[in-house]
């Protein structure tokens, strides 16, 4: 099988064998041209001859149509995930026409009906979602550390482009440090506040920036880079059986 995750910044793919083991995977920036990026990957995909392609995309109809055109040339059946707020594994009262399918799949990949869970996705946006015994209680969306930095650059005169690192939440004594530490604190502080409000929810983090952010969270965090893939596998396993 070939699994695709089209996020706002990167395209992730996983090729798995008959028993679900990952035989190849990668993550690449798509620069808003995911179809062209996929075109360059088709040789590699064809070598593994997957019998099905399952896709999560938050890129919108126009780009999804282009992706479909590219995948159509492979002659391998493919299908995009559609959020199902009444799924057997997890119920959600969130507006299901709006809920991002990557967010939903990450939850589906993590959900455990015996647990209370807080699933945090650290991609182009940071999302925090609460799940109580397989019931999605809703969540929050924040701009990522990079989007926050860009908005400060573009909305102010005296804060100019810099490539500092996000490595501390202590107060800064220079503009560069104050910007990076303030932004990191805004996200870490929100996560710490949520974990304070929901003390018995297990904190699970995933996405490109999870390791940067989790270091400053004052609770044990489970880092899982397989959540979305696991969600895709659970979704298509279920659709095929029903
Ligand atoms: N301006 C930027 N500079 C450096 N890295 C960036 C920038 N914007 C995004 N990234 C990186 O892109 C990755 C996006 O994470 P990912 O989970 O793939 O998100 P998405 O699913 O939204 O594409 C992160 O690792 C982040 O560090
Ligand atoms: C919140 C998101 C932007 C996160 O996307 P990502 O950072 O993974 O690229 C995406 O899930 C999305 O566009 N969601 C729609 C809005 C919502 O979930 O309510
Ligand atoms: K994502």
Automatic annotation (TrEMBL):
ATP binds at residues 5-12, 124. Keywords: ATP-binding, Coenzyme A biosynthesis, Cytoplasm, Kinase, Nucleotide-binding, Potassium, Transferase. Pfam families: Pan_kinase (PF03309). Its EC number is 2.7.1.33. One of its GO terms (biological process) is coenzyme A biosynthetic process. Its cofactor is NH4(+); K(+). Its main location: cytoplasm. This is Type III pantothenate kinase. It comes from Psychrobacter immobilis. The lineage of its organism: Bacteria, Pseudomonadati, Pseudomonadota, Gammaproteobacteria, Moraxellales. The gene is coaX.
